[in-house]
Structures are given as C-alpha cells and as structure tokens.
Design goal:
This protein has 6 helices and 14 strands. The protein is 29% helix and 25% strand. The chain is of the alpha+beta class and 283 residues long.
Length: 283
C-alpha cells in the first residue's frame, strides 16, 4: 500500500503574521543603522516697506504709528496745533502778563496784539506755556530749556482772534533771554579763515562779543507764516525785553541760538548776524 503524505495547512492568521514580520525586517534593519537627519524647515521673510505702519506727516512732520489709537489721536492734536496754534483765554493772563502792543498789524489782514510774560510763570498761564514749549521743541527738534534758562527768559506771544471764535489763538511765539556774549557770523567770503569757528552750521569769528539779548526759540503756526508775525515779535522783544533799554538787532545787540534754515532767513531779514550757545552765554 503506497505511503500517504499528509499536508497540514497553517492557520491564515499565522500566515498574515509571518508576512507582516517579513515586511518589518527591512525597516528594523534600517533602524539599526545611522539615522538620517531631517531636512531643516526654512522660513522666508518678506519686508514690505510700502506697508510700514510708521508714517511721517508731511504737514506737521510728526512720525506716528498708523492703526494705534493713541498715536493717531496724538498726531491729530499735534497737527492741528502746528497749523492753527493753541488757544489763549483771558483767564490765562490775569497776573504777570504785560501788554506790549495792543494793535499789532504786521501785514494786511493780520490784526492782533502782543503780550509778554516770564517763561517760568505759574498758574494757568504757566500750564499753557508748558504746552507751547513742548510744541515748539517738537517742531524745531530742539531740547527743552533748562530751569536756569527759563528763569532768564521772557515769552512774547502774538494773539489773534479768528471770526466767530470765543478765544484768541497764539499765532506766534518768540523766547528772549538775557545773555552776555555771542559770536559774529562771518560772510561767505571769509569762511576759509583759519581761525573761523563752526557754530550751529555757521562759520563765526572766534572772539566772543558783548551781546545783551538772545533768541533761543521762534515758532509760528503754518497758517500764519510769511505774514510778518515773527519779525513783529522780534522787534517787540528788542524794544521791551530789557526795561528802559531798547535794542537794535542790526547793531549786534541780538543773537540767535541754533537757527534752522527758516531761522537763518529770519536772522537776515531782521539784520541779526550773531549766534550764541544756550546756557553757556546766559547772563
């Protein structure tokens, strides 16, 4: 009787398990070797300067952040003051204010009055002056005056009253302070002089000259510029800053501090040809 061969079939579950293990072997072999580093994820940054949130106002020159309520409110207030000036009420001049010119008329259509007061005044007038000084320094990119300088300084304000307005507007402000010396600005032909001294971008003679009055700040809102207001305030300061001693700007009795380009033109129109260093030349 021939031999009978018996074939025992394996369960299907065992077959699947073996097949699974067979597939895992190559992966396990790879895991035993050195692991390949994953490629770095690169991030590309695009700078869109046309969408920069910082904006410089062409009207007032202030740089502020768009979309920030506090910045936009600050810019709105500052820009309005640069264009139209701050208001001025009669309650702000109850004490310590001198009327210099009750009927100032520097050019056709401009009528107002000029008053003066101490730069270190207190009360409501002092609070308003602090706001005026902050505005002036921001526009002129100038540092605040020291307390010593404020004590030696008088403020001259040109006030106008617009139609249908209940309060006057400050259409111009000039600060005048007692100083001791200044330097004469050299003509362009003398700037090659070996002894010339560069002061605030101007070439000056090196010898200090006696000078009684200095002008550290001049500001006129844009609405009132080129109407003779700054010149009227300079003349008022020359007449009254030193009691009983009127001064002539054209004879070297006045000097400017840190003149800007427009300040340099004002110096020329007033006949002032001297500059001085703030604080250093105070009397």
């Amino acid at each position: 009787m021939p031999a009978t061969r018996t074939y025992a079939s394996r369960p299907k579950t065992a077959q699947r398990t073996d097949a699974s293990q067979a597939r895992k072997k190559p992966a396990q072999a790879k895991a035993g070797g050195a692991a390949k580093p994953k490629p770095a994820v690169l991030t590309q940054l695009h700078l869109a300067f046309d969408n920069c949130p910082l904006k410089a106002c062409k009207t007032c020159g202030l740089t502020y952040t768009r979309g920030v309520p506090e910045d936009e409110a600050l810019h709105k207030t500052h820009c309005a003051r640069v264009q139209r000036g701050l208001d001025w009420g009669r309650d702000e001049e109850k004490t310590g204010v001198q009327l210099v010119d009750a009927a100032a008329n520097p050019s056709p259509g401009i009528h107002g009055r000029i008053i003066s007061l101490r730069a270190d005044a207190g009360g409501k007038a002092g609070a308003k002056l602090a706001t005026v000084f902050d505005l002036m320094n921001t526009v002129l990119a100038a540092p605040p005056l020291s307390q010593t300088a404020l004590k030696a300084t008088k403020v001259y304000l040109f006030l106008v009253k617009p139609k249908n307005a209940s309060r006057e507007h400050i259409a111009g402000c000039v600060l005048a302070q007692r100083i001791s010396t200044s330097l004469a600005v050299l003509p362009t032909s003398d700037t090659n002089n070996a002894g010339a001294k560069l002061v605030h971008g101007l070439y000056c003679a090196p010898e200090p000259l006696p000078t009684p009055l200095g002008i550290p700040r001049v500001f006129v809102p844009t609405t009132y510029r080129r109407k003779g207001i700054a010149r009227a305030l300079i003349d008022a300061a020359a007449r009254s800053a030193i009691h009983g001693c009127p001064l002539d700007p054209r004879t070297g009795q006045l000097a400017f501090s840190q003149p800007t380009d427009s300040g340099r033109r004002l110096m020329d129109s007033c006949g002032v040809q001297r500059v001085y260093e703030e604080d250093d030349d105070l009397q």
